[in-house]
TrEMBL record:
This is 1,4-dihydroxy-2-naphthoate octaprenyltransferase. It holds the Pfam family UbiA. It comes from Actinomycetospora termitidis. PANTHER family: 1,4-DIHYDROXY-2-NAPHTHOATE OCTAPRENYLTRANSFERASE, UBIA PRENYLTRANSFERASE DOMAIN-CONTAINING PROTEIN 1. The gene is menA. InterPro entries: MenA, UbiA_prenyltransferase, UbiA_sf, UBIAD1. The chain crosses the membrane at residues 35-58, 88-107, 113-130, 142-161, 167-188, 238-257, 264-290. It is found in: Cell membrane; Membrane. HAMAP family: MenA_1. It is a multi-pass membrane protein. Conversion of 1,4-dihydroxy-2-naphthoate (DHNA) to demethylmenaquinone (DMK). GO terms for molecular function: 1,4-dihydroxy-2-naphthoate polyprenyltransferase activity. NCBIfam families: menA, PRK06080.1-3. Pathway: Quinol/quinone metabolism; menaquinone biosynthesis; menaquinol from 1,4-dihydroxy-2-naphthoate: step 1/2. Keywords: Cell membrane, Membrane, Menaquinone biosynthesis, Transferase, Transmembrane, Transmembrane helix.
Length: 291
């Protein structure tokens, strides 16, 4: 039976910036319109964190029963390591996704945006079928597309809309930046796992592109949001605070472009997540300070 520490590690806390950043960024976009709602922001944060932890457990379960996680570096795999039974991990995934759904319903009740219920249902399905089901899209090189959509436009603009009742140009630009950096987190993870994923038949985008092109893609994914900071600064000058993420991204870029492999890429995953959070917080502050 898995210990509490193993369950916490299995939840992959290093991926939580992917949950926090979109809500912070979307709240900043709402604040730029004078419509920031603390209650809606907290509910959106609960939704995002529950969904991310839920999808992590769902991936652990689905990859574990397929044998994909039998020989992996990186975070704790509960099923693959035999620390927890597949049924227990599946239940944990369902509980987390259920918490996210309930918090989502509360958010829709507060905001009155009930049409977003459809989007919420799609998000839950996307969380499960990323590696679950008979034909998981994460095994067909579509993971990055889903991450961009769910953690960028859906999460950021959904947060903004439930607070302000509209989507702004500043929100769209911010959603692009958050979505791309969220993709970079996934790419850092998949680059590390290229050898084991190749053997297991998991055709991630990193496996399809190969290590060299994946490293180039990672660089593009982290550089473009920095350019987005410059674009956003034309309307919100303090959005340049997002460039503070450079301090974290430079060492990560050096590792990726320097050819680091396997365990040497683990710090890149953590650094990219921190950079995502720094960019989102800096940008949100900049948007909130718009006259």
């Amino acid at each position: 039976m898995a210990t509490v520490v193993e369950w916490v590690e299995g939840a992959r806390p290093r991926t939580l910036p992917n949950a926090i950043a979109p809500v912070v960024a979307g709240s900043g976009a709402a604040a730029s319109a004078g419509a920031f709602s603390p209650v809606a922001a907290v509910l959106a944060l609960v939704v995002a964190m529950a969904m991310v932890i839920g999808v992590n457990f769902a991936n652990d379960y689905s990859d574990g029963i397929r044998g994909t996680d039998d020989d992996r570096v990186g975070p704790m795999r509960l099923v693959g390591s035999r620390a927890a039974s597949p049924d227990a991990v599946r239940r944990a995934a369902f509980v987390c996704l259920g918490v996210g759904a309930l918090a989502g319903l509360a958010l829709l009740a507060v905001s009155g945006a009930w049409w977003l219920l459809i989007i919420g249902a799609i998000c839950i399905a996307g969380a499960w079928f990323y590696t679950g089901g008979s034909s998981p899209y994460g095994y067909r090189g579509l993971g990055e597309v889903a991450v961009f959509l769910f953690f960028g436009p859906v999460a950021v603009l959904g947060t903004e809309y439930t607070q302000s009742g509209r989507v702004s140009g500043l929100g769209i630009g911010t959603a692009v930046g958050v979505g791309l950096l969220s993709c970079a987190v996934l790419v850092a993870n998949n680059l590390r796992d290229v050898p084991s994923d190749t053997v297991a038949g998991k055709r991630t985008l990193a496996v399809l592109l190969g290590e060299r092109d994946t490293r180039v893609m990672y660089a593009a994914l982290v550089v473009v949001p920095l350019g987005m900071s410059l674009v956003l600064s034309l309307r919100a000058p303090w959005a340049l605070l997002g460039l503070l993420a450079l301090a974290v991204l430079v060492p990560a870029l050096r590792r990726v472009l320097g050819g680091a492999r396997g365990p040497a890429l683990i710090p890149v995953l953590q650094s990219t997540g921190i950079a995502l959070l720094v960019w989102a917080v800096g940008t949100a502050i900049g948007l909130a300070l718009v006259p």
